[in-house]
Amino acid sequence: MLARVRSCHHAFRLAVVVAAAVVAGGCETIGSDLSDLARGLSMPTPGEAARMAVDPGDADRRREGTLLLANAPFGGDETYVRIYRDYAANERDPLVRSVAIRALARHGEPDDAMIIAEQLTAESLPVRWEAAKGLQRLHQPDVVPALLRTIRQVDETPAVREACAIAAGQYPQDRVFQALVSALDARDLEVNVAAAWSMRMLTGQDHGLDPRPWLRWYNDADDPFAGGQEYLYPTYTRPESWFEKLAFWSTPLREQPAPPVGLRSAAERTTYDDDPPGDGGE
Asked: In the structure, what pLDDT confidence band is assigned to residue 3 with cuts at 50, 70 and 90?
């Protein structure tokens, strides 16, 4: 009887905490976080996720299943990578194809960059954006022409050009440097900043956003790429949600910047902390 009373008391305290957070947090944020809570309490099994990913009649299920597989610890299994490749090249639904490109960039091989690069000319903006970001994670020099065409394409969305300019920072080639210098004259600041960042990676120099000092230095340098820095693709970070803070028993893994596949060994493929914070990690 005492155990039942204690159990009810703990449940009541948790309900009070959740209610207080709802009052303090705002409807939109709380709605999103409660959706996270619901998903966390009813996650599909690996088998269910796989069946969702290959559902021929429901694009939403294919998208969700593919995303679940890609984010799972076993998402790099060759069986699933073949699904990502097929969807990245052939899927008609643009949102499913976008998720597949993201998954292939995370788990694929250098040659998969060629499949992704073809999507830089897709009609769908989400597809082109995922392709541009995906090429930051895979090292394949044969994609350089596609990257440079997109960087120079003035009618392309700035976010896509920016992502391609960042991806170009892993290729120490004269044509890459020249395209990045030209991108400093683009109308959009994010493209300018991305081009300057990549030139710093390629050369170890920092001449700001003015192309003239960059060109003067480059023309005088015997080996302009001798001082290049290690290229690490950028990763997305965000503050913890209130539910993540409340769910102290489940610490989310944070992806860390890393060299692209093709510039690192298979043993270094994971980009997550080996130990989550609180369990021996930082």
From this structure: very low
